[in-house]
Specification:
Two copies of one chain form a homodimer. With 405 residues, the first copy, chain A, is an alpha/beta fold. Chain A has helices at 16-31, 46-57, 63-87, 119-126, 152-163, 197-205, 213-221, 275-285, 314-328, 355-365, 389-399; strands at 3-8, 35-40, 92-95, 102-104, 113-116, 130-134, 137-139, 145-147, 168-173, 194-196, 226-230, 238-241, 254-258, 261-270, 293-295, 302-310, 332-336, 339-345, 372-376, 379-385.
C-alpha cells in the first residue's frame, strides 16, 4: 500500500474501450489499498489532428493559442476516465493542469515545469479520491495555458509523483519496458529489469523513445522510482532506479540508434583562433541545436569542421553555412542527410577501458566506416552511413553480450 | 466606434473556412476603430459528438466531468479563431471561461452566471487586443469548470457585454434575425427590425429558438442592446431593445409554436382543499417542470386537473401520476403526446382588449379545438391537437396582420 502515480500514454487511451481497460487497472490498484493519481495523454492521433487543423490556418500557428488548442486533448481523456471510474462507483475527479497547479515557465509548446503545487491533489487523495490529471499541460505565471512538448505527460507524471512524494511512478505505454536496443532492429534485444537514471537519460537523448528525457531528469533529481510497463499486460516492465546493486551491473547496458540528424562539413576553413565560433554561432543564433562537433587537425593552414543538426533543420543550416563559408573564405560546404548515429550506453563503462576499442573493432569487422565519434562518461557514439545502421546495432548488441539467451 | 461584443454560433464556426470568414468579419469591425470581444460556440456537431462519446461509457455521465469534457469544444474554436486573427496580423488572444472570470454557481450542465470579473478582458481591450472568449463555460466558486446549458454562449456574450459595458452585443447565427413566426411553417413570416426584451423572452420561452432565454433576461436586466443577425450576410438583423418607439408598436408582434410538451389529465380528483398540491408536488419533487396547469370547476364533488410536461419526461410523469391517482382516489389518468402549443406574443396586447377573442375565433374558423389556454400580460397560448399546429400558426399570422406585403 502506498501512493501510486500511473501515467497512461496515447495508445493506452486511444478509444472508449481502452479507457475502460485503464479504469479497471486503476480500480484494481485502488482496491489494493493504494492511493492512486492518474496522469493521461491525449487519445492517440488527437494531438496530430489538432496540429493538422491549425496547419490549415497557417504554417506557423501562434504558440500561445496552439497550446490552448492542444490542451483540449488531455482534457478530453481526463474527463472521460474520471467519468468511467465514477460510473464504476469509484470516487474519481479530474484536474486540469491549472487546477493541479502544474506551474511552468512561459515557453509555449515546450514549457518546463517549475513547481507543482500539490495541495489540491493531496487533499483529494486524503479523501480517498482517485485523481485524474490531464498530462502535458500546465499554467505559466500569468495564468496562460502551456504545454510541455512531445512526451510531456511523462514529465507531468514524474513531477506530480515528486510533489506528492509518491512511492512509485508507473509509466504505462505500448511497449513492455526498456530494451537493450530497438527490438524492431534486433530480434535478440532483451527487456531490461532495471536501468539507472543516467543510462536512461543517455538512452533517451540518443534516440530511444520510451520516456521524455525531461521526465528522467526530474526522476533523477527528486529520486522518484519509475516503472516503465505495458498497459496491455500484467507483466513487470523496467524499473528506472538511482543505482544498481553490484550484482546487476553490466559494462554496457544498451545500444541506441538515431537517424534524426544530418551532417554538415565545412572544408578548408582558415586555421585562425575563434574560427570555430564563426562557423557555429550563426547556427545557434538561428535556434538550431547542434549535436556532435568535430574539428580536424590543421593541414596547410586550413581545418575541416563537421557537425550534425536535426534533419528538419538541414536546409536552413546549409543555407547559413554557405553564407558563412563565403565570409570566412572556406573552401566548400558539404552536406549529408544519409547518416545514422549508433551508440553504446552503460554506467559500467566509466571504469572499464576497452569499450571504445571493442566498438570500433566490431564496426571495422563489418566494414563499416566511422565518420564521427563522440563520447561521454557513459556513452560512445559513432556516426556512420545510414544504410549500415541496423547491421551496426545487431553486431554491437552481440559483441557486448546483450543478446537474450 | 465603440466596444462591440460579437457572438458566433456553432454553424458560423463549423469548419476552418467558416472560422476564417468570422475572422474577416471581426477584423473589419476592428479596422473600423471598434474594440472587439468575440464569444464563440463549439463547432456545429462537436458538442453532440462529445455527448455521444460519454454515452458510450454510461447512460448517466457524472455532471462535473461532463462539463470538463464539453468545455473542450469552445476551447478549440477560441484557440483556432485567435490563431487565425494572429496569422492575419491582428493582435488577438483567447481566454477560457476561468481566464475571463465567468463566475457561475455550481449547477453543472446548467450553471447560471453570477458575475463576470471583467478585469482581464478590459485590460486586453485597452491594449487594443481582440479578445476571443470561449463561450458556454464558466468556473464555480471552488474552481471547477461549469457549462451554461444549450445555447449558453448567448448568455456568455450578453453577460460579458454587460460586464464591460459594451455598446452593442451582436449575436451572429445562421438565420438573419427574429421572425414574426417560424418561416419554415409560414412562408409569409416577416423579419422584425426590432423586438423588445419582454417579447423576446416570451418568444424564447414559447418555442422560438433564436436566443437562449437566459441571455435575454440578462440583456433586459443590464439593458444590453442585442443585435441578432446572420454571419453569412451583411444585412441588418433584428435589434432587441428595451422599448419601442410608439410608431413601431404593433398589438401582436409574433406567433410561436412548440411541440415539446405532452399533456397529462387526472380525471375525477376529489374536490378537497390542497388536492392540486397532492397531484403536482410529486411531479416537481421529481424535477419535472410543469408548464400549463388547468383545474376544471368541480362537478359531482370531483375535479379534473390537466397539466403539460416536457415530452421527454412524459413516461416518468405518467408513472408518478398513476401512483398519485391511486393514493388520492382519482378516477383515471389520461396522457396525450400529440399536442402543440400555439401562442401570440406582443407588448401591445397589454392595452388592447380583443386579442384573445380574435385568437379564439380565428382558430374556431379553422375548426381547431382549443384544449388548454394560458395567458400572461404579453402572450396568449392555446394547446391544440398537434396536427393542426402549422395551420393555426398561418391563420393567426394572417389574422393579426403580420404577413409580409
Amino acid at each position: 500500500m502506498g501512493v501510486i502515480v500511473q501515467k497512461y500514454g496515447g495508445t493506452s487511451v486511444a478509444n472508449i474501450e481502452r479507457i475502460q481497460n485503464v479504469a479497471k487497472r486503476v480500480a484494481k490498484t485502488y482496491d489494493q489499498g493504494n492511493d492512486v493519481v492518474v496522469i493521461l495523454s491525449a487519445m492517440a492521433g488527437v494531438t496530430d489532428n489538432l496540429i493538422e487543423m491549425a496547419g490549415q490556418i497557417t504554417d506557423r500557428p501562434e504558440r500561445r493559442e496552439m497550446d490552448v488548442l492542444l490542451a483540449t486533448g488531455e482534457q478530453t481523456t481526463a474527463a472521460l476516465l474520471a467519468m468511467t471510474l465514477i460510473s464504476m462507483k469509484y470516487p474519481a475527479q479530474s484536474l486540469l493542469g491549472y487546477q493541479a497547479e502544474v506551474r511552468t515557465d512561459c515557453s509555449y509548446g515546450n514549457a518546463r515545469i517549475q513547481k507543482v503545487g500539490a495541495g489540491r491533489i493531496k487533499e483529494l487523495v486524503e479523501d480517498r479520491k482517485i485523481v485524474v490529471v490531464a498530462g502535458f499541460q500546465g499554467i505559466d505565471p500569468a495564468g496562460n495555458i502551456t504545454t510541455l512538448g512531445r512526451g510531456g505527460s511523462d514529465t507531468s507524471a514524474v513531477a506530480i509523483a515528486a510533489a506528492i512524494n509518491a512511492d512509485m511512478c508507473e509509466i504505462y505505454t505500448d511497449v513492455d519496458g526498456v530494451y537493450t536496443t530497438d527490438p524492431n532492429i534486433c530480434s535478440k534485444a532483451r527487456k531490461m529489469n532495471r536501468i539507472t537514471f543516467d543510462e536512461m537519460l543517455e538512452m533517451a537523448s540518443l534516440g530511444a523513445k520510451v520516456l521524455q528525457i525531461r521526465s528522467v531528469e526530474f526522476a533523477k533529481k527528486y529520486n522518484v522510482p519509475v516503472h516503465v510497463r505495458s498497459s496491455f499486460s500484467e507483466e513487470e516492465g523496467t524499473m528506472v532506479v538511482n543505482e544498481y546493486t553490484d550484482m546487476e551491473r553490466l559494462v554496457v547496458s544498451g545500444i541506441t540508434c538515431s537517424k534524426n540528424d544530418a551532417r554538415i562539413l565545412v572544408k578548408g576553413v582558415p586555421d585562425q583562433p575563434g574560427i570555430a565560433a564563426k562557423v557555429l554561432t550563426p547556427i545557434s543564433d538561428a535556434g538550431i541545436v547542434v549535436d556532435i562537433i568535430i574539428q580536424s587537425s590543421p593541414r596547410n593552414g586550413t581545418n575541416d569542421i563537421a557537425f550534425t543538426v536535426p534533419k528538419t533543420e538541414y536546409d536552413r543550416a546549409m543555407e547559413i553555412e554557405q553564407k558563412v563559408a563565403e565570409e570566412i573564405g572556406a573552401k566548400e560546404v558539404q552536406g549529408d542527410k544519409g547518416i545514422a548515429k549508433v551508440s553504446v550506453v552503460g554506467v559500467g563503462m566509466k571504469n572499464h577501458a576497452g569499450v571504445a576499442a571493442k566498438m570500433f573493432s566490431t564496426l571495422a569487422a563489418e566494414n563499416i566506416n566511422i565518420r564521427m565519434i563522440s563520447t561521454s562518461e557513459i556513452h560512445i557514439s559513432c556516426v556512420i552511413t545510414e544504410k549500415y545502421a541496423e547491421l551496426a546495432v545487431r553486431s554491437l548488441h552481440t559483441a557486448f553480450g546483450l543478446d537474450k539467451e
